[in-house]
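>> received
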Amino acid sequence: MEPEAKNPIPNSIPPANTFAATDATGRLTVPKTLPTDDPSKEIHNIRTYSSDMAEAVREGKGSVVKIAMAEEEKRQREVANVSAKTPKNMLYIGGGITLLVVAIIVIILIATHKSTPTTVTPDVVTATTLVSSDQNRSVDVTNFSRNQVIKAIGSEVAAGAPSLGKILNLSLVETGTAGKVAISTDRFLTLMNMDTPATLRRSLDPTFMAGVYSFNGTDLFFIFKTNSHDVGFAGMLAWETKLFDDFYEVFNIPASGADSNLFGKKFTDMVIKNHDARALLDANNKPVFFYTFLDETTIMIATSPDATTEALRRLSRNTIRG
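>> returned
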C-alpha cells in the first residue's frame, strides 16, 4: 500500500477574495470570504443607466417618466451648448466670417497693388513761345518721318487759329519715358532733314516756335532764336541756297509750272511792313517766301507779310512790358 499524501493539490484555485484554511492534518478546509472592516466597502458591480433608474425608483426619488424627462432635458442642454444657433456661438461664427472677409479683401488689395503697375499720366511739356500766342496745340510727332511731320503740320494749318487775328502755337512733341516733351530746335532740323549750316545750327537756341496766324487765310510761320546776330545773319545767308528746298513742302508752296524757277532763284533784299527782309519773288515780284530778323537775335521764316506784322507787334509789346 502507498503511503497517503500529506499535502494533496486542490482541484481549483480559490477566488482572489477568499483564503484557504487547513486543519490539524494540513488539509484544506472550505474557503472563507476575506473579512472586511467596513461592510459598506463591499465591491459592487459596474453602475449603468438602468441600475441608476431602478435604484432611484426604489429610493423614491421619482418615477421612470420623471427620470426620463430629466435625462432628455439634460441632453437638450448639452446639444444647445454646442449648437451654432446659440447667441454666443452665433457671435463667434459672425466674428470669424467677418475676419475671413477682411483677410480676403486685404489679400486681393495687396495682389492688385503688386500686379498693377503704377500709371503715371505724362504731362505735355511745351516750348515757351517766342512771341505771345492765343492758343496752344500739341502735335505728337513720335517716330514720324519728314513727310509725316509735314502732313501733321498741314492738318493744323488747315484747322486754323481760334479766330481772326489770333495766333495758334503748334507745340511739336515726342513721347518718351518722361512723357510728352517738346522737341528742340536741333531735333526739329534733324527730323526734317534740313541742310542747315553747322555754324548757324550751333548758335540756335533749343527753343523754337511753329505758329499759325489767322487773318487773310491761315498762314504758317517759324521763329528761331540765335545767340549771336552776326553768326545768325551769316548763317542765314549761307542757308539761302537750300532754304527754299527745305521749307517749300512744309509751307505748301506751289513749285511747279511757272513757279518751278523758284528753286534756282536768289533771295532779294526787300522791305515787308517797314521791316528789312530777304525774300524769293514770283514772276510778279511779289514775295512768296522770306525770312527776317524781328530783333537782333530772333529769326522769322514765313510766307505772309501779315503774320510778320503781327509777330512784330506782339514782340514789341512784350519788350515794352519787360
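>> The longest helix spans residues 87-115.
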